Every structure is written in structure tokens, then in C-alpha cells.
Amino acid sequence: MDKQRGVINQSTNSATIADVLERILDKGLVIAGDIKIKLVDIELLTIQIRLMIASVEKAKEMGMDWWITNKDFNSQSTTVQNADELEALKKRIEILESKK
What are phi and psi of 83, to 5 degrees? Predict the structure, then answer.
């Protein structure tokens, strides 16, 4: 009986980094923080930091899809915008040339 008390039980269940990352992406992880700089009760600067880590599917479930409409992240929206701008420029050139 004394021998059993002296034995330290170790957990056989361990999570690898891949397991932890899969759980985070599946459930999502939010880190939030605020930094405020005040001088004599006058707020000079406020920085709000929000970080969310999740899979694309989880983010879409939460209603976040900014990368679809943001031209910096979506080449298709940039192509459409460039085509619209090109068409507008062509019309302006036609108008200017017709005035000559």
C-alpha cells in the first residue's frame, strides 16, 4: 500500500500541436485588449486590439466574410472594379475625342 502512494500517476492523454490547432480553428479563439494612454485624466490615445483565430467555415458561420468583398484579398472583386474603371475611362475618352 505504501508503494502505491509513492507512485506518481502520469496522464496518458496528451494533445499534439495539431490537435490544439484543430480545436482552436473549429471552435474559434478571440483575444481582445485595450491600451489607453492618459495624462492628467485626459485621454491622449486609445488602441483597441481584437484578434480572432478561426477556420474560414467557422468565420462564415459567425457572419464574417470581409475577405470576399475586400479588393485587397479578393482578386475577382479587383478584376470587376478594374473592368468598371476601364469602361468609364473609355467613355470619357470617347466624349473628349468627340469634342475635337
Answer: -65, -40
For 41: left if phi > 0, alpha if psi spans -120 to 50, otherwise beta; the answer is left
Cα(48)–Cα(37) distance, rounded to whole angstroms? 12
Total number of domains in the chain = 2
Between the CA of residue 26 and those of 19, 81, 89, what are the distances in Å? 11, 34, 46
The pLDDT value given to residue 20: 85
Indicate if the pLDDT at residue 92 is higher than 60. yes
54 and 70 together in one domain:
no
Q: And the C-alpha cell for 33? A: 485588449
> pTM of the full predicted structure?
0.45
Any bridge partners for residue 46, and if so which?
Answer: 36
Domain carrying residue 43: 1-64
Same domain, residue pair 37 and 8: yes
Find cell 486609445 and name the residue.
Answer: 46
